[in-house]
Amino acid sequence: MGIFGKSLEEKAQEAVAEIGQMGLGVWQLTATVDGQVVTLKGEAQNLEAKTRVMQEFCARVECENVINTIRVPAPATRVPAAAGPGPPAPPPVSAEPTIHVVVAGDTLGALARRYYGKASLYMKIFEANRDILKDPNLIKVGQRLRIPA
Description:
CATH topology of the largest domain: Histidine-containing Protein, Chain: A
Largest sheet: 3 strands, mixed
Strand content: 15-25%
Distance between the termini: 38 Å
Number of helices: 4
Number of domains: 2
Helix content: 25-40%
Order of helices and strands: HEEHEEHHE
Strand order of the largest sheet: 1-2-3
CATH architecture of the largest domain: 2-Layer Sandwich
Number of strands: 5
């Protein structure tokens, strides 16, 4: 424990332990702290469970940014035995997009570089968030942006 109370790491680990016992449909939940940024990892049975974990975590731990990388596995597809040969099934669509909470200094270009390796892909993030963004050059601290795969 620090001079002024529990560290962010301690708070994050306590929150993960509490959330893990709530029966929300999430497994192997972990939190990694890097400065004031917390990254949640694990596996959830569905998008609702993933979202609920994020809400519960944010209600317990105050930090600059929480990155939710909890994985939601694609539903298993079954092919009937009598189907015979046909076109190959399309690859499963990746899990739901990551949520990034904007902090001071963030830009869509910086986020694109962080998540995709290329700042020039910033429009991918802008297009995924047109419901809350009107201009790719104007993002605000605290906005929750979807980062599509």
